């Protein structure tokens, strides 16, 4: 059960690896407008399930703390991430925001039944090093004038890690509730778009296809898979394995001609893979013993 849930959770990371490619292919739509559309699309599969099986509607009746956690996690993360990118260089903001896997690994020690071990931390540090190689390939330069953006990026990291850790405590809550989280995030993103952005519609069919792909996979199914994974799987492994997303994303961009291969990418792959294997040592040893 735990292994299956961990694998399902890892599929979310694979889907997030497509985020950069699909976003680049979606055109110049403003971020909150894109978020509003994609999260609405992401909610559609869940709505179809609820229509076909109306008895599952009862699963949406959850305490306020569940709804607050879910909406704050999905919408809060994206709001802070977009704010960070608007007020700081993308490289530095991205690196700070991508502290969330490390925070998940460290914070997992506070969860019932979990124990943080040295190899978990070592795996997370290796993954972080691999991410730095990918994201900061053109150098890093933190400047005080971008303090607002850096602060938003740090809050972004804490928001997603906190959401993931707290979600673990709601293991009895059905993943169906993610449908409501996506709908609420779509509505809040639309409000932000109307107040902060100018509407831009795609000009080509390929851009619409990319937007639909975003909504169905990295901004849709990925959140359902992640919810199930962190509730029922190995959250420490998933935290470390999350560092594979930027590496896999870069490999996908190379495959489609949006980036060039380099020694940095090869080394980053080794670091992230090594970190994930190290973090999964307990699972690997148990399966060999069985």
What's this model, at a glance?
This protein is mainly α and 290 residues long.
What does this structure look like?
With 290 residues, the protein is mainly α. It is globular. The protein has one domain. The protein has 14 helices and no strands.
Number of β-strand runs: 0
Helix content: over 70%
How many domains, in number, for the residues? 1
Quaternary state of the chains: single chain
Largest sheet: none
Beta-strand share of residues: under 5%
Separation of termini? 15 Å
Low-confidence stretches are none
Q: What is the overall pLDDT average?
A: 89
What class would the helix/strand composition place it in?
mainly alpha
Helical element count?
14
Q: Using only CA atoms, what is the Rg?
A: 19 Å
Q: Report the principal-axis shape.
A: globular
Task: Spell the H/E element sequence.
Answer: HHHHHHHHHHHHHH
Can you give keywords for this protein?
single chain, 290 residues, mainly alpha, 74% helix, 0% strand
Question: Mind sketching the topology for me?
Answer:
Elements: H1 2-16, H2 19-25, H3 31-52, H4 64-87, H5 90-97, H6 100-107, H7 118-135, H8 147-168, H9 178-196, H10 205-232, H11 235-241, H12 244-255, H13 263-279, H14 281-289
Helix pairs in contact: 1-10, 1-11, 1-12, 2-10, 3-9, 3-10, 4-5, 4-8, 4-9, 5-8, 6-7, 6-8, 6-11, 7-11, 7-12, 7-13, 8-10, 11-13, 12-13
